[in-house]
Each structure stands twice: as structure tokens, then as C-alpha cells.
Amino acid sequence: MAAKTVCRWLSLDQRHDYQAWIDNDRRLRELLSQLEALGAAALEADPRWQRKPTAAPGGTTQTSP
Can you tell me whether residue 61 is helix, strand or coil? Predict the structure, then answer.
């Protein structure tokens, strides 16, 4: 299948049987999206990302607190 989406029409019985899986998949994707946003916000809020590079003796670059 090479990671391609395949559309399938479900019968009413199949829909009933699979609906919980479909709902769980949607909920999982929502939670993952929220978790990714929280992680990105935590990184942005970390004051250590605000450090500015300074030139050290010998021309190397260091970060200052």
C-alpha cells in the first residue's frame, strides 16, 4: 500500500462495530496535538533559550547566562 490512504465504505454493522475505534483515534490525535503545543510552549517559556552568544577569547562562541 506504500502508506497511501484507502477509502472504504462501511456497512451500518461495520460502522457500529468500528465507531469506538474511530472516536478513539480522533481523541488520540486531539490529545497528541495538545501535548505538542504544550511542549512547544514549555520550550518557548524556558529562559535559557533567551541567552545571547558572546565572543570568547580566541574567536570561539559561548553562550552567556
Answer: strand
C-alpha span between 10 and 15 (Å, rounded)? 6
| 50 residue type, one letter | Q
Distance CA 51, CA 63 (A): 6
Full DSSP string of 34-57: HHHHHHHHHHHH-GGGG--EEEPT
Q: What pLDDT, in 10s, does the model give residues 27-41? A: 999 999 999 999 999
Q: With beta carbons less than 8 A apart as the criterion, state whether 64 and 51 touch.
A: yes
- pLDDT at residue 3, rounded to an integer: 80
Helix (H, G, I), strand (E, B) or coil at 27: helix
Count how many residues are written for the chain.
Answer: 65
